[in-house]
Design brief:
Distance between the termini: 36 Å
Oligomer: single chain
Strand order of the largest sheet: 2-1-3-6-7
Strand content: 15-25%
Number of strands: 14
Largest sheet: 5 strands, parallel
Radius of gyration: 27 Å
């Protein structure tokens, strides 16, 4: 039988003891946390509870008014509203505001508690998964457009170059351009497929042995027009000890494309100078994208990886606020870590680490 972590928010110590004893008897709770008010509960740190018993009458406020705050702190938990007396209006309001169930204290028994906990937790987990999937679908529909802009511009640029080469009778150069055009088209196709797969709940990473140099080359090919137009200088340095990486290669190239593209975009008044370095660090490959751009203030070094969050002071530089959030999601999906080190006005180093050998993720890892 599954065991869940429970939290009881009730100012009556006798009622808390009753819930704790009944949960122990039916064997559905591995541990019970207790709080005598909402403020004490919200101040708690540690793992998220699976089920929360929230008293309707609490000192200073009702449990019903506190329900949105409790849900915001623990969005994946099943919340069961309790009250001393039955009231259909309270029950309806509790359910409409996100409670999984409602029960009066005088009818609480082992069978009712077991049913409510199991059904409530199952429903809450399914609702949470669906909400995460909805957010992924919404975010990645925007990301799909965002990340395809660079390779689409590269295709248009190559088409113009090929036309000029044909007009000039330079057939060899035109043939080389056609080969690059085909590579760009295939790369976009792989990116679309990878993004499509990534938003599905049953999506499995498609790992393969990929040459590190090819991962970087794929990103640079997509950014060719940006590099030419900006006059950027991009250098590549790869540790000879790390020739290949076992990874989901289209997604790693996408991360590199975003990071290098940002390094070029946020160069300020300087000519962009970008260094891409890959080092072996224990069992990890450490990728660094180093630029000489405008930099990022320390207080924004973490928030920039959140969806639609951009650091202030970017002037007229256009951006969707999705690029770094996508990078973080793709790196974490492959059991990696991503962070940045920056000095405002002097440049930024974007760093992400991936295991040399892929290890299936059993829990969401934390970024550094």
């Amino acid at each position: 039988m599954d065991e869940y972590l429970a939290l009881v928010i009730d100012d009556n110590s006798g009622d808390r003891k009753l819930i704790r004893r009944l949960l122990a008897r039916v064997g559905v709770s591995s541990a019970v946390l207790e709080a005598d008010c909402v403020a004490a509960a919200l101040a708690m740190a540690g793992p998220e509870p699976d089920v929360i018993f929230l008293d309707y009458l609490l000192p200073g406020r009702s449990g019903l008014s506190a329900l949105p705050e409790v849900r915001e702190k623990w969005p994946g938990a099943a919340i069961i509203m309790m009250t001393g007396q039955g009231d259909e209006t309270v029950a309806k309001s509790a359910i409409l505001n996100g409670a999984a169930d409602y029960i009066t204290k005088n009818v609480i028994n082992q069978n009712a508690l077991q049913r409510m906990v199991r059904n409530g937790v199952d429903a809450a987990r399914m609702k949470w998964r669906l909400e995460q999937q909805r957010q992924d679908l919404a975010t990645f529909s925007d990301v799909l457009v965002h990340d395809l802009k660079a390779p689409m511009r590269a295709v248009a640029y190559l088409a113009d170059q090929i036309a000029e080469d044909f007009e000039a009778g330079e057939l060899k150069e035109a043939g080389e351009g056609l080969a690059l055009l085909k590579k760009s088209a295939l790369r976009m196709q792989r990116m679309v497929t990878a993004l499509h797969d990534h938003i599905h709940l049953d999506r499995q990473e498609k790992y393969e042995n990929a040459a590190v140099r090819d991962l970087i080359a794929g990103a640079l090919d997509a950014l060719e027009l940006d590099i030419v137009e900006s006059g950027a200088e991009v250098s590549v340095e790869i540790d000879p000890q790390i020739d290949e990486l076992y990874c989901d290669s289209p997604l790693v190239s996408q991360v590199l494309q975003n990071l290098i593209g940002n390094a070029i975009k946020y160069s300020g008044d300087k000519a962009p100078r970008v260094a891409v370095q890959v080092h072996l660090r224990g069992s990890e490959a450490r990728f660094e994208v180093i630029d000489n751009g405008i930099g990022i203030a320390p207080e924004y070094s973490k928030t920039i990886f959140e969806p639609f969050k951009r650091a202030p002071g970017l002037g007229d530089v256009q951006g969707s606020g999705l690029g770094l959030a996508t990078c973080r999601k793709l790196v974490l999906r492959q059991n990696g870590r991503i962070w940045c080190e920056s000095v405002p006005g002097e440049g930024t180093t974007m760093i992400f680490c991936l295991p040399i050998l892929a290890v299936p993720a059993t829990a969401t890892p934390l970024s550094a």
